[in-house]
Amino acid sequence: MTETGQTPTGAGPKNAVVILLDSLNRHMLGAYGGDEFATPHMDRFATRSTRFTRHFTGSLPCMPARHDILCGAWDFLWRPWGSIEIWEDAITYELRKAGVVTQLISDHPHLFESGGENYHIDFTAWDYQRGHEGDPWKTRPDPSWAGAPNFMRKHMPYDDSRGYFKTEADFPGPRTMGAAARWLEENAGQHERFFLFVDEFDPHEPFDTPEPYASMYDKEWEGAHLIWPPYMQGAIEKGVLTERQARQIRACYGGKLTMIDHWFGKIMDALDAHDLWKDTLVILCTDHGHYLGEKDIWGKPGVPVYETLGHIPLMIAHPDVAPDTCDALTTSVDLYATLADMFGVTPRQRIHGRSLLPLLAGKATSVRDWLLTGVWGREVHIIDGTHKYARGPVGNNAPLSMLSNRWSTMPTHFLSREQELPLPDDRAFLDRMPGSNVPVIHQPWSEGDKLPYWAFTKFGGNHLYNIETDPEESRNLAGTALETIMAEKLDAALIELEAPESQRKRLGFA
Length: 510
Prior knowledge:
The chain has about 500 residues and is an alpha/beta fold. The protein has two domains: about 15-370, 3-Layer(aba) Sandwich (Alkaline Phosphatase, subunit A), CATH 3.40.720; about 375-505, no CATH class. It has twelve helices and 19 strands. The chain has helices at about 40-45, 60-70, 90-95, 155-160, 170-185, 245-275, 305-310, 335-345, 355-360, 415-420, 480-495, 500-505; strands spanning about 15-20, 50-55, 60, 100-105, 125-130, 195-200, 230-235, 280-285, 290, 295-300, 315, 325-330, 370-375, 380-385, 385-390, 400-405, 430, 440-445, 465. The strands form four sheets. The chain has an eight-stranded mixed sheet with strand order 5-4-6-1-8-11-2-12, with helices on both faces. The chain has a five-stranded mixed sheet with strand order 3-13-14-15-19. A three-stranded antiparallel sheet has the order 7-10-9. Helix 1 (about 40-45) crosses helix 6. The longest helix has about 30 residues, at about 245-275. The chain is globular, with a radius of gyration of 22 Å. The relative contact order is 0.18.
């Protein structure tokens, strides 16, 4: 390895496979000590991998997290949700220029909706497996599907698609993982270098599976399975869920986790069959976890990023590195930097990631001292490996700014476009993104303005936890002398990143 971690010509990995499983809970994987649900194939992968123990989210939720991985920069300080901007490129653009064959295989609906544009276009080829969650695949349902309780959701496109899944292999997750395994079978040895990105939406809701998975962890349940979790805090306390229903929802997640683990095994088998481990870097990662009753929180509502959601799994199999654990602090943008380092490409945009290759090669014991995570318009969190500090607005959630030239946001299915994202108004002006000379629309919002969807939340003050000694986050240290220290670290990080001044103002730093 070189000092930067890059592999000299002719040595080390020449290919990369990234498998992103959506909403993958770290604490439920056998490789991380979980024993509630079976994950034998991910555990099998762990036996040949470096298992990262202090890996955390960055930008949240789904598409912002993918922006972290594919573009290498945190965007939650600047915008809520969106596509690739005109001043930046996905890593696939640089790989294409370098002659690397790139393939996307996915059933993730947000990649092909408003707000997810342009992530797929620079892949050499892409394969979209249809029918998951919000994917508008069918115009009428197959009557064989009677539906399921949806806990305050309106009609979902999945209800029109579900009846067309007749066997396990017909479900979007198995189809996606099967397609990835076939791609490896058909392309092993056919390209000088390749990058395969598998963006698999499971185990994200709906937690809908065929038997034996549907009843695997709750054999006594009768009636329609509860595959749609509510998105709220206090669901049991407020009577939205009974304790019995809560157990059923969690069991349905477990069934889907075990099902997608089984199909992950197909990819492992293809890597085995063609001995691709000898020259391929393989990464198993996620965008975030999923609350399934921890602190009586369900889904991904407007609460601070607790460990369940933000402390995520990362395992990397490197041809030249023996299986091990890594306790260095890492985050999602570091995956971009790692791939760029491995393939020897340099992005034109400013990135926030640090290559993990020096950690894997034993050339370094750490690559960063802190990271930021959060959702636009909500708390901003800083994690230094020992402490997590979540700081909310000092008063009303203002001022806020959005910087974007795409001006798109998440299609929430239950809000109109006007409700999701207000249009720019006469207060908008041209600004520059840090590290770029490209003009960008900078829209400020003040107290009383209608804000984008993601800023709709109630704040419960600041939160500060020692996540090493208090992983359950039961002792809030906000208000102690330690908060002053962590607040100074957070403000210094925002200044270093050149975050919008509105962020510092609403957090009480300016």
